[in-house]
């Protein structure tokens, strides 16, 4: 079973049934999705990774799991079929090895000249839940829109002696009030996780410890480490999300105010 919040998968429950149909030994795993609501990680109640799926932009990549744990959700609307290796996508089947559908578009050339293509070749910001038509995801078009409002400055303002150049797409010098009105059109509620914790925008978060041999280097450090994230909120739809940082930290390097990453409910 999967638990959902709109299009976002929150958790999966695996249970055994006896001869009388009673549920026994249920196992709950928390799902962590990316900006497309594609599950990428499953953790248990202790925060340990039980399943993870790392793939390229078109979904090519094998899922890794601990024991018998299986999560068959893939891109929104897709369900992994282990026997064929394809992703069942309602009206069509998707092949991640080629980044194309196995069947042609049901509406023929009316959907474009490439009748087998997936989301018009833009899988980083488009989804196709039914296998019929691409849907563009509302993602800020400018890096400026991702900066938390409490540390955001109008482009062109001096920051620590360095000029914040107005070269970011769509960013132009303007008054503070104008910036707030443009980038935060509505008052958003605070970000809250599934455990009920309120997470202020800008809070550092860390994923469960990646266990790596001490003599092996990953991401510029040797041994086990945490992948780091920062809490952010889309001002257009108030959706909260964890934005990945470009560095990792050892356990002893974690700031005191850092929190474990868990799914948001808003």
TrEMBL record:
It comes from the Bacteria. Gene3D superfamilies: RHS repeat-associated core. This is Wall-associated protein. It comes from Pseudomonas aeruginosa. The lineage of its organism: Bacteria, Pseudomonadati, Pseudomonadota, Gammaproteobacteria, Pseudomonadales.
């Amino acid at each position: 079973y999967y638990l959902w919040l709109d299009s976002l998968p929150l958790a999966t429950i695996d249970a055994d049934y006896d001869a009388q149909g009673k549920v026994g030994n249920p196992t709950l795993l928390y799902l962590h999705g990316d900006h497309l609501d594609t599950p990428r990680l499953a953790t248990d109640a202790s925060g340990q990774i039980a399943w993870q799926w790392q793939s390229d932009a078109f979904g090519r990549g094998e899922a890794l799991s601990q024991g018998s744990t299986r999560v068959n959700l893939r891109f929104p609307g897709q369900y992994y079929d282990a026997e064929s290796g394809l992703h069942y996508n309602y009206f069509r089947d998707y092949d991640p090895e080629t980044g194309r559908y196995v069947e042609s578009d049901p509406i023929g050339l009316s959907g474009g000249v490439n009748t087998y293509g997936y989301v018009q070749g833009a899988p980083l910001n488009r989804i196709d839940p039914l296998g019929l038509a691409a849907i563009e995801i509302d993602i800020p078009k400018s890096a400026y829109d991702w900066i938390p409002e409490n540390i955001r400055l109008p482009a062109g303002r001096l920051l620590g002696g360095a000029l914040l150049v107005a070269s970011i797409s769509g960013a132009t010098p303007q008054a503070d009030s104008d910036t707030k009105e443009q980038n935060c059109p509505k008052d958003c509620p605070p970000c809250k996780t599934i455990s009920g914790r309120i997470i202020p925008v800008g809070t550092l978060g860390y994923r469960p410890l990646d266990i790596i041999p001490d003599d092996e280097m990953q991401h510029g450090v040797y041994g086990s480490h945490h992948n780091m994230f920062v809490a952010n909120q889309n001002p257009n739809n108030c959706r909260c999300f964890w934005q990945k940082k470009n560095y990792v930290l050892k356990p002893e390097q974690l700031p005191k105010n850092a929190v474990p990453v868990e799914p948001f409910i808003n």
